[in-house]
Amino acid sequence: MSNCRSLVVALAGLAIAPAVLARDIHYGAVADPAVLACDDLHWHGNNAESSKCYANLLGDDSPAAAKAEASWALNNLKQANEWFRVAVGGRPAITRPRCAGETCLQPRTTMPKR
C-alpha cells in the first residue's frame, strides 16, 4: 500500500512540475507585440523557440521594457532589473504601500515639485 501511495505522490509531483516552473501570465501588463509573441511560444510549450525569441529581443532595437521582460523570461534577473530601471527612469517614483497590521493603503505617486 505504501509503495502505491509513493507512486501516486511521485506522479502528482511530475504532473505539477511544469506549472511550478512556468512564468505567470501577466494579463495585459505587457503590451509590446514582440514580447507577447515570445510569451505565446512559451505558454504553448515551445521553450526552445521562446528562448530564442526572447534572446533576439535583447539584441535588437527593442524598448528597454521589452528587454527587461525578455531578460526576466530568460531568468537573467540582474539584467532584467537593470533594464526595468532604465524603462522606468523617466517616470515619477512610486512609493511602497504603507501597511499597519493587515491594512494597507494604496501606493501614491510622488509628483516632482515645480
Provide a count of the helices: 5
User: What does the average pLDDT come to?
Assistant: 74
Q: How would you sum up the major sheet?
A: 2 strands, antiparallel
Helix vs. strand class: mainly alpha
Tell me the total number of β-strands.
Answer: 2
Shape annotation: flat
Question: Can you walk me through this structure?
Answer:
- The structure is a single chain.
- The protein is mostly helical and 114 residues long.
- The protein has a domain at 26-104.
- The chain contains 5 helices and 2 strands, in the order αααααββ.
- A two-stranded antiparallel ribbon has the order 1-2.
- A hairpin with a 2-residue loop joins strand 1 (99-100) and strand 2 (103-104).
- Helix 2 (33-43) runs antiparallel to helix 3 (47-59), helix 3 (47-59) packs antiparallel against helix 4 (64-73) and helix 4 (64-73) runs antiparallel to helix 5.
- The longest helix has 20 residues, at 2-21.
- The relative contact order is 0.09.
